[in-house]
């Protein structure tokens, strides 16, 4: 769920006579919450939070009215209720979200066969081949929004640009219920005033590093000498952000996205309570998933975490990556971050699982950058050693203390 609350909305309200912005990013507006409001129209215009009404739960989704109070997905419900005490909390219904998602994707397929599904509520579309039939990207985006509303009763936002990165940024800026077209010749002018945090891959730590150097906007970064960026962020990170700041993104819409997934989970004979023990098990599972991804010659766009507590209540959380991966280090990092949002002292965990979803062929991932390259080289070396001498001959040092024979008794591991 985007943190965009609509206050900085920017749209192309009038027709744009441009045919260069043929990459569309379509993103459903507050998708889970909007689906719930279809059955609860009396709640429209109110701050609504989707999630279990328990202080130990987390926010699944929130309407734009709730977001203006600072409520976001994955936030502890206790925090959300303090920020927005007048919010209405409704229980999630994931089967309804899946059905609406399928209907939305069918609408996209009516306009172009080149659809790259990113998750349950967003996709990239390549409409270059649809221009003769449906008109300009502005006209196609307008028609898609109308068709989605007609077929599902839901609103979506559309960004149109000549690259995937700019299209995704444009859809975010047009939220909610908007359309923003960025012609190729206007790409740099659109990008440079944006905050540096708008760049794909700039999280809190990277943003702090850049701002300490006086780099606060994309334009600031674009005009920073590349050697300075490399010194601050490393060769891959510096080059990546420099390319993005000038609108350079060679990736194409990939229609080979698979709905299949690869995962592993483990059930413990004795519940885990310590965060470090859970993190170590996540590393073990991430390593197993990564090995299977590499054997299948695929990479995962999405990392999913599954946690089952001692009372058999089960939570799942997922995160879509900027670039797909088949590296255990990356899978583990993302899984631990997802877990840290859920962790509470005293929680007793019966089962935990890691899954790679939205798989793409490794050779077709079209990665704009590859921060995982050093780790991939190490892990493929371990793969080769395992193939010759057997699995487990080499493993991360952090797993030695938690070797299988020392883990909780009667633990069961299952491919998921």
From TrEMBL:
EC number, as in UniProt: 2.7.7.7
Residues at the active site: 122
Keyword Transferase: yes
GO CC annotation terms, alphabetical: cytosol
Keyword tags: Cytoplasm, DNA damage, DNA repair, DNA replication, DNA-binding, DNA-directed DNA polymerase, Magnesium, Metal-binding, Mutator protein, Nucleotidyltransferase, Transferase
Protein task: Poorly processive, error-prone DNA polymerase involved in untargeted mutagenesis. Copies undamaged DNA at stalled replication forks, which arise in vivo from mismatched or misaligned primer ends. These misaligned primers can be extended by PolIV. Exhibits no 3'-5' exonuclease (proofreading) activity. May be involved in translesional synthesis, in conjunction with the beta clamp from PolIII.
Chemical reaction(s) catalysed: DNA(n) + a 2'-deoxyribonucleoside 5'-triphosphate = DNA(n+1) + diphosphate
Primary gene name: dinB
MF annotations from Gene Ontology: damaged DNA binding; DNA-directed DNA polymerase activity; magnesium ion binding
Organism: Curtobacterium oceanosedimentum
Cofactor: Mg(2+)
GO terms under biological process: DNA repair; DNA-templated DNA replication; error-prone translesion synthesis; SOS response
HAMAP family on file: DNApol_IV
Name of the molecule in the record: DNA polymerase IV
PANTHER family according to UniProt: DNA POLYMERASE KAPPA, DNA REPAIR POLYMERASE UMUC / TRANSFERASE FAMILY MEMBER
Residues covered by the UmuC domain: 23-203
Compartments, record wording: Cytoplasm
Quaternary data: Monomer.
Free-text remark on how the cofactor is bound: Binds 2 magnesium ions per subunit.
């Amino acid at each position: 769920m985007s943190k965009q609350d609509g206050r900085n909305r920017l749209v192309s309200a009038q027709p744009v006579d441009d045919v260069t912005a043929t990459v569309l990013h379509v993103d459903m507006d507050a998708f889970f919450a909007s689906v719930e409001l279809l059955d609860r129209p009396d709640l429209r215009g109110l701050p609504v939070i989707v999630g279990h009404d328990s202080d130990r739960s987390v926010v699944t989704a929130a309407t734009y009215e709730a977001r203006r109070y600072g409520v976001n997905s994955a936030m502890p419900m206790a925090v959300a209720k303090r920020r927005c005490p007048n919010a209405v909390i409704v229980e999630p219904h994931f089967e309804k979200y899946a059905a609406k998602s399928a209907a939305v994707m069918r609408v996209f397929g009516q306009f172009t066969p080149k659809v790259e599904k990113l998750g349950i509520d967003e996709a990239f579309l390549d409409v270059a081949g649809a221009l003769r039939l449906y008109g300009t990207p502005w006209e196609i985006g307008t028609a898609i929004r109308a068709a989605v509303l007609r077929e599902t009763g839901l609103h979506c936002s559309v960004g149109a640009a000549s690259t995937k990165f700019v299209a995704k940024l444009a859809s975010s800026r047009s939220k909610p219920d908007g359309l923003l077209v960025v012609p190729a010749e206007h790409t740099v002018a659109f990008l440079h005033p944006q905050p540096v945090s708008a760049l794909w891959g700039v999280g809190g730590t990277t943003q702090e590093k850049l701002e300490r150097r006086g780099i606060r906007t994309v334009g600031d970064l674009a005009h920073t000498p590349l050697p300075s960026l490399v010194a601050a962020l490393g060769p891959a990170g510096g080059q990546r952000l420099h390319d993005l700041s000038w609108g350079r993104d060679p990736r194409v819409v990939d229609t080979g996205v698979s709905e299949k997934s690869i995962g592993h989970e483990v059930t413990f004979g004795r519940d885990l309570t310590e965060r470090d023990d859970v993190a170590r098990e996540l590393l073990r599972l991430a390593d197993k998933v990564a090995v299977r991804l590499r054997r299948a010659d695929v990479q995962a766009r999405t990392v999913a975490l599954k946690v089952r507590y001692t009372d058999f209540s089960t939570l799942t959380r997922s995160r879509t990556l900027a670039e797909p991966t088949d590296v255990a280090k990356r899978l583990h990092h993302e899984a631990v971050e997802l877990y840290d949002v859920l962790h509470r002292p005293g929680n007793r965990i019966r089962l935990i699982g890691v899954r790679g979803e939205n798989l793409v062929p490794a050779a077709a991932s079209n990665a704009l950058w590859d921060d995982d390259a050093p780790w991939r080289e190490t892990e493929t070396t371990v793969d080769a050693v395992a193939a010759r001498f057997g699995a487990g001959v080499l493993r991360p040092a952090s797993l030695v203390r938690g070797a299988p024979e020392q883990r909780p008794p009667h633990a069961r591991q299952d491919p998921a």
